[in-house]
UniProtKB/TrEMBL annotation:
Residues annotated as domain 2Fe-2S ferredoxin-type: 8-84
Gene3D superfamilies reported in the protein's UniProt record: 3.10.20.30, [2Fe-2S]-binding domain
Keywords: 2Fe-2S, Iron, Iron-sulfur, Metal-binding, Oxidoreductase
EC number: 1.2.7.4
GO molecular function: anaerobic carbon-monoxide dehydrogenase activity
Protein name: Carbon-monoxide dehydrogenase small subunit
Recorded superkingdom: Bacteria
Length: 162
């Protein structure tokens, strides 16, 4: 017998704003961010926790939004790439990625940027090994990781200089 899906009213905090939304308990955070809130900077690749493209920050920690139900995010502060970008221009991390050609198609880039933001928030002066470890859950199929690592090193340097 077919089951009738039930919508739940929840409130999500995303990029400093409060969003009342209606969701089914089974809906993924990644889908709700993209389709309900229009925050399409969160990309969806594998949808099984492998590629890292859907990474957002949940209370400051990188989290795969395809492995989390939207209802689980209630009460947390979510940051997507839209919230990590200034109104105009680029953030220090975005600018460093641009300088080092650390993106080509850009599919992995929002997640790379957010993962970098989280890394630099907890470790302002990471070693190359620590950068590679922090980004190891994010797959880039076109740029090559060396440019990305160099971009993170420049971003760290810029942030330390204020
Ligand atoms: S889409 Fe979530 S890890 Fe690949
Ligand atoms: S820039 Fe294309 S997947 Fe990373």
């Amino acid at each position: 017998m077919a089951t009738v899906s039930e919508l739940q009213h929840i409130t999500l905090r995303v990029n400093g704003q409060t969003y009342p939304v209606e969701v089914e308990a089974r809906w993924l955070l990644s889908d709700v961010l993209r389709h309900q809130l229009g925050l399409t900077g969160t990309h969806v690749g594998c949808e099984q926790g492998v590629c890292g493209a859907c990474t957002v920050l949940v209370d400051g920690q990188p989290q795969r939004s395809c492995l989390m139900f939207a209802v689980q995010a209630e009460g947390s502060e979510i940051t997507t790439i839209e919230g990590a970008s200034p109104e105009e221009g680029l953030s220090a991390v975005q600018s460093a990625f641009q300088n080092h050609h650390a993106l080509q198609c850009g599919f992995c880039t929002p997640a790379m940027i957010l993962t970098t933001e989280a890394l630099l928030a907890r470790n302002p002066d990471p070693t190359e090994e620590e950068i590679r470890e922090a980004l190891s859950g994010n797959i880039c199929r076109c740029t090559g990781y060396q440019f990305i690592v160099e971009a993170v090193q420049e971003a760290a340097e810029r942030r330390r200089q204020g």
